[in-house]
């Protein structure tokens, strides 16, 4: 048996946004998800008393349609 961690992030308002706002919205979503995943990783590592590895530098990808 195993535990599963699930986090629900706050809603990001999209009223009034256009297609031109899509790259910025994608980047905002990605940054929020990465921050949450990194926080959850730190929590799990601390909970199990494991060493915390250095996290790689983040790259922005909103302008890359292949990501």
Tell me what you see in this structure.
The mean pLDDT is 84. With 67 residues, the protein is mostly helical. The radius of gyration is 16 Å and the shape is elongated. The chain has a domain at 21-50. It has one helix at residues 22-47.
Instruction: Count the beta strands.
Output: 0
Total number of helices: 1
Shape: elongated
Strand content is under 5%
Helix % is 25-40%
Q: CA-to-CA gap between the ends?
A: 33 Å
Largest sheet: none
Structural class: mainly alpha
The ordered H/E elements are H
Uncertain spans, ≥5 residues at pLDDT below 50? Answer: none
Q: Please, what is the average pLDDT?
A: 84
The rounded Rg comes to: 16 Å
Key terms for this structure?
67 residues, mainly alpha
What topology does this entry show?
Layout: H1 22-47
Question: Quick recap of the structure?
Answer:
By secondary structure, the chain is an all-alpha fold.
